[in-house]
Each structure stands twice: as C-alpha cells, then as structure tokens.
Amino acid sequence: MKVLGIVGSPRKNGNTQILVNSILEGARQAGAETEMVRLADLKIRECDGCHSCWKGRPCVKDDDMNGIYDKIAASDVIVFGTPVYWFGPTGLMKLFLDRFVYFNCPENQAMVQGKKAILAVPFEDTDLETARPLVDMFRKSMDYLKMDLVDVLLVPGVTRKGEIKNRKEDLEKGFVIGTCFSR
Ligand SMILES: Cc1cc2nc3c(=O)[nH]c(=O)nc-3n(C[C@H](O)[C@H](O)[C@H](O)COP(=O)(O)O)c2cc1C
Asked: How far, CA to CA in Å, does 144 sit from each of 53, 66, 82, 147, 173?
C-alpha cells in the first residue's frame, strides 16, 4: 500500500507535521510505502474555476499541483493534516482541496473514488466542537468525491510549535491508525 501524507501547516516541524508523521510511521512499520508532502514547500495556486481540467486537459495553472495529482492517483491512502485556523483548515490546505475540482469530472474521478482518507487535526482549543466545521467540510468533500474518510484524529489543546510531542497517547493513536495500512 502507498500512503501519502499531506501537511497543510505552514509551520515546519510543527504539531501537524509530527501528527501526520506518527500515522506514516505506523504505516511504514506495517510494511506500507509512505511519502510526506509539505504544502508550504510547494507552489500551489488557487483554482479559478476555468474547468480546463474537465475537458481532458491538464490544469492551466501549471504549478506543483500537477505533480501531486500523479502522487494522489498512485496512492491508496491520503492523510490530510491541517491545524484549525479560524474554525477551518489553513489557507494552504484549502487551496489544495479546491484543486480537487480536477477529480470532479468523469475522466478523472476514478483516480480518487474509493480511496481511503484520514484527517489529522491539532488545535489550541480544548473544546472538540471547535474542529467541527473543518471536519464537516472534509467529510462532505470526501463523500462528494466518493472517497472513504476512514478516520478523524483530533488533538485539542496544543498551541506551541512541537508541543504535541508531549501528547504520547495521541501520537500512539496516530501510529495505530497507520498500522492498518500494510503491504
Ligand atoms: C492563523 C491562526 C488561526 C488559528 N485559529 C485557531 C482556531 O480557530 N481555533 C483553535 O483552537 N486554534 C487556532 N489556532 C491555533 C493552532 O490550531 C494551533 O496552534 C496548532 O497546534 C498549530 O499547529 P501547527 O504547529 O501544525 O501549525 C490558530 C493558529 C493560527 C496561526
């Protein structure tokens, strides 16, 4: 199995990256092939709704997303990692998800249909409700794309960079989620 981890936080080695890595670590231990992509390292521009990608043509933006489409198509599982930013995902993650319009046409939809997805979300508030709009948005988007959101890992109460390292139980949960994806 191939597991692709997407880190949507701009903060390098921050809580999201550590959390996504715990899931990938579990998958690696179980024998899966893993890769992590930090969206902040890439140039991904906004979808402007031209729908060129629905006419069998590549996205006119011609940016790093074109390489990611291939990685998504080649993966069995996508781990979406984003902190809560104003009750939603980061801007990086939203731009990334907007570009999934590419998969929303008959020519391309088979590339993601049935693919498993995991959502991993650290955030400052201790109230789980804070993450609800973000989780709802992902759940509805995955349903719409006929992807299978198999797990949502929420880690409330983490603020400072790397603070999640103290949350051994949550990182262990991530590891265990990853071990479900073996060879
Ligand atoms: C612009 C911005 C907006 C944020 N909005 C929220 C929020 O609405 N609710 C919340 O609980 N935490 C919020 N946070 C805190 C982050 O979710 C938290 O610090 C998280 O652990 C950061 O993860 P990272 O280290 O991967 O970037 C916000 C942080 C920033 C920088």
From this structure: 18, 21, 20, 8, 27
Evaluate if residue 157 carries a pLDDT over 90. yes
Residue nearest to atom 30 of ligand 1 (CA): 85
Q: How confident is the model at residue 120 (pLDDT cuts 50, 70, 90)?
A: very high
- Give residues with Cβ within 8 angstroms of 96, minimum separation 6: 6, 8, 39, 44, 65, 68
Contacts of 59 (CB under 8 A, 6+ apart): 52, 53, 65, 66, 69, 99, 102
Q: How far apart are CA 21 and CA 169, in angstroms?
A: 14
The mean pLDDT of 86-111, rounded to a whole number, is: 96
Nearest CA to ligand 1 atom 2: 85
Q: Which residue has the least CA distance to atom 8 on ligand 1? A: 86
User: Roughly how many angstroms between the first and final C-alpha of the chain, as a whole number?
Assistant: 5
Q: Which domains does the chain have, with CATH numbers?
A: 2-179 (3.40.50.360)
Q: What is the mean pLDDT of the segment spanning 161-169?
A: 98
Task: Identify which of 11, 36, 85 to mutate to test ligand 1's pocket (most ligand atoms within 8 A of the CB).
Answer: 85
> Which residues, judged by CB distance below 6 Å to any ligand atom, belong to the binding site of ligand 1?
9, 11, 14-16, 83-87, 122-125, 130, 158-159, 161
